[in-house]
Specification:
The chain is α/β, with parallel strands linked by helices and about 600 residues long. It folds into three domains: about 5-245, Aminohydrolase, N-terminal nucleophile (Ntn) domain (Glutamine Phosphoribosylpyrophosphate, subunit 1, domain 1), CATH 3.60.20.10; about 245-425, Glucose-6-phosphate isomerase like protein, domain 1 (Rossmann fold, 3-Layer(aba) Sandwich); about 440-595, Rossmann fold, CATH 3.40.50.10490. Helices cover about 35% and strands about 25% of the residues. The protein contains 18 helices and 27 strands. The strands form five sheets. The chain has an eight-stranded antiparallel β-sheet, with helices on one face. A seven-stranded antiparallel β-sheet has the order 5-6-7-8-12-13-14, covered by helices on one side. Helix 3 crosses helix 4 (about 130-135) and helix 9 runs antiparallel to helix 15. It is globular and about 80 Å long. It binds 5-amino-5-deoxy-1-O-phosphono-D-mannitol (M6R). 5-amino-5-deoxy-1-O-phosphono-D-mannitol binds near residues 303, 304, 356, 605 and 606.
């Protein structure tokens, strides 16, 4: 959830740390702090607010240093203020720690430490860590950190500095991501690659239970129950440009506009027209298991959960395999009925979502094969699944997920095509799907040319409304959920998504002349039914904003605003119908002057429970 970074090397630590924090800010941005090793002490600054405020605070007063740590926070324990901001220190300010995760037994540890006269100043769970290190430090820093970690329950990514070992940082991981970048005479440890790749493409992914002692030209890794191991250095291909805004006002808009290109990447090399089938090398060893599964359970959270619902509809209708979709947070605490023929698929953009990860581990404990659909290469979920499919959406920085959603849906289309062909679709049916898939990127490009102006006008008209309803049926029901989620997340307008026909079972009571209702009414198999739902809204003076099929002149007469998308086959419609909803949410939030890329209370990667 939070962004953490540590630096040891030949360069000015402050500069590296502040730049890195800016790149990590999407992970949390309610307070920030920095700690640096100086000649005689640890220099510490913490502020409530964003990284820029921290940078301004230290501008004139910061000492020269080559070793330091920094943090950008998303509060879990304790309000966002200067004191609760990280780094946290021990009683004598000899150790400073930045922490990402949650220490679940911190109350017990705090009591234990207070009984030994340690003084706490913050309301955070994290503050126990420097005090534990202080308690156990006996001249050997690694040993003190190891012992402290053995007391911690919960999740942590830690970067630690100590006045007693001024030439190094200590890094530890359990359940929260940590990557160490190896430069020339320098190392940078951070919660993700975004803060590292401008320095180096050589990285070490720290694993759970590992603690690393990092000096400017040397790294030593200790793995719990194993001892010292040889660090595995990997080469990453991500470029800095990929994670920068490229001229757009916001990452969200950039990411919406990238969608045609992204989908080309998602399908590249994965379609075999001659055989009318998809090729998914990442799960090649599990294809038969999937084909013969008696049930597929898809687990995800948030937007990924909406993509999973679309995946459910696709797999059931194209391949005829029963599918259930679960929230990670529910699945992990249920007693799911699983057997050897169940296959679990976890879906996550970040690959770090704590609830999804816990569900993955729960499924594995039951001996079930678990496959992943992930975006971030090398993420924890990608590593812990038995096999998986990367969606190739590239780094998604905007907190509101957009391009990853489309790439996830497209991945489900490929998977459903593959399973469908292995079970019941003919070559010709497969080829029809492939042709439709291949048309989608160009159709999206065309829409991106013509939709923004129209949607800006609609957004300006409705930006001050307090409530919205989103309705859709079939494949477009999850799109309605996603449209409502996007609006809520970035514009703070209350919005609800429903299956259109459910409206009459309750939400219809909300409809009056002030209620905008976004209805996805494309010419699919249940078009006529949706028309009846629109009539019901009109009969109650509701305002209808319809997403409809190109050339549907009849519908245009009945609705207040009609946004047209081209024809495609029913399972692929969500790839087109969600675009206007993403743009609508974006422009409403932008017109309201809100911080689109960093909406309040949210974080890009939810690595706490
Ligand atoms: O990284 P994940 O796909 O696992 O994230 C799941 C949700 O936290 C995420 O989709 C969240 O709902 C987004 N903010 C939606 O825009």
């Amino acid at each position: 959830m939070c962004g953490i970074i540590g630096y040891v090397g030949k360069n000015d630590a402050t500069n590296v740390l502040i730049k890195g924090l800016h790149r990590l800010e999407y992970r949390g941005y309610d307070s920030a702090g920095i700690a640096l090793i100086t000649q005689n002490d640890i220099f510490l600054r913490k502020v409530a607010g964003r990284v820029n405020e921290l940078a301004q605070t230290i501008e004139v007063s910061v000492p020269q240093s080559n070793v330091g740590i920094a943090h950008t926070r998303w509060a879990t324990h304790g309000v966002p203020n200067d004191v609760n901001a990280h780094p946290h220190t021990d009683c004598k300010n000899r150790f400073a720690v930045v922490h990402n995760g949650i220490i679940e037994n911190y109350r017990t540890l705090k009591k234990f430490l207070e009984e030994k006269n340690h003084k706490f100043i913050s309301d955070t769970d994290s503050e126990v860590i420097p005090h534990l290190i202080e308690e156990f430090y006996n001249g050997d820093m690694m040993a003190a950190v190891k012992k402290s970690c053995s007391y911690l329950e919960g999740t942590y990514g830690l970067v630690i500095i100590s006045l007693d070992c001024p030439d190094r940082i200590i890094v530890a991981r359990m359940g929260s991501p940590l990557v160490i970048g190896k430069g020339k005479d320098e190392y940078i440890a951070a919660s993700d690659l975004a803060a590292i790749i401008s320095h180096t493409d050589q990285v070490i992914y720290l694993k759970d239970g590992e603690i690393a002692e990092v000096e400017k030209d040397h790294v030593k890794i200790d793995r719990r129950d194993v001892g010292l191991i040889t660090p595995e250095i990997e080469h990453v291909t991500l470029t800095l440009e990929q994670i920068e805004r490229g001229g757009y006002d916001h990452f969200m808009l950039k990411e919406i506009c990238e969608q045609p290109v992204i989908l080309r990447d998602t399908i590249r090399g994965r379609l075999n027209y001659d055989d009318g089938i998809a090729r998914l090398n990442g799960i090649a060893d599990y294809t038969e298991r999937l084909r013969d599964a008696d049930r597929i359970i898809i687990v995800a959270c948030g937007t990924s959960w909406h993509a999973a619902l679309i995946g459910e509809y696709m797999i059931e209708s194209l391949a005829g395999i029963p599918v259930e979709v679960e929230y990670g947070s529910e699945f992990r605490y249920r007693k799911p009925v699983l057997n050897k023929r169940t296959v679990c698929i976890v879906v996550s953009q970040s690959g770090e979502t704590a609830d999804t990860l816990a569900a993955l581990r729960e499924a594995k404990r039951h001996g079930v094969s678990v496959l992943g659909i992930c975006n971030v290469v090398g993420s924890t979920i990608a590593r812990e699944t038995d096999a998986g499919i990367y969606i190739h959406a590239g780094p998604e920085i905007g907190v509101a997920s957009t391009k990853a959603f489309l790439a996830q849906i497209m991945t489900f289309a490929l998977l459903s095509l593959l399973l469908g062909r292995l079970r019941r679709l003919s070559i010709d049916e497969g080829r029809i799907i492939i042709e439709a898939i291949k048309r989608i990127p160009d159709e999206l490009s065309d829409l991106l040319e013509c939709l923004p102006q129209q949607i800006k006008e609609i957004a300006m008209t409705f930006k001050d409304h307090k409530n919205f309803l989103y309705l859709g049926r079939g494949y477009n029901f999850p799109v309605a959920l996603e449209g409502a989620l996007k609006l809520k997340e970035i514009s703070y307008i209350h919005a609800e998504g429903y299956p259109a026909a459910e409206m009459k079972h309750g939400p219809i009571a909300l409809i009056d002349k002030d209620m905008p209702v976004v209805v996805i009414a494309i010419k699919d198999a249940i078009y006529d039914k949706v028309l009846s739902n629109i009539e019901e809204i009109r009969a109650r003076y509701g305002i209808v904003i319809a997403v409809c099929s190109e050339g549907d002149t009849d519908l245009k007469k009945y609705v207040d605003h009609a946004i047209c998308v081209p024809y495609t086959i029913d399972p692929l419609y969500p790839l087109l119908t969600v675009l206007p909803l993403q743009l609508l949410a974006y422009y409403i939030a932008d017109f309201k002057g809100l911080d689109v890329d960093k909406p309040r209370n949210l974080a890009k990667s939810v690595t706490v429970e």
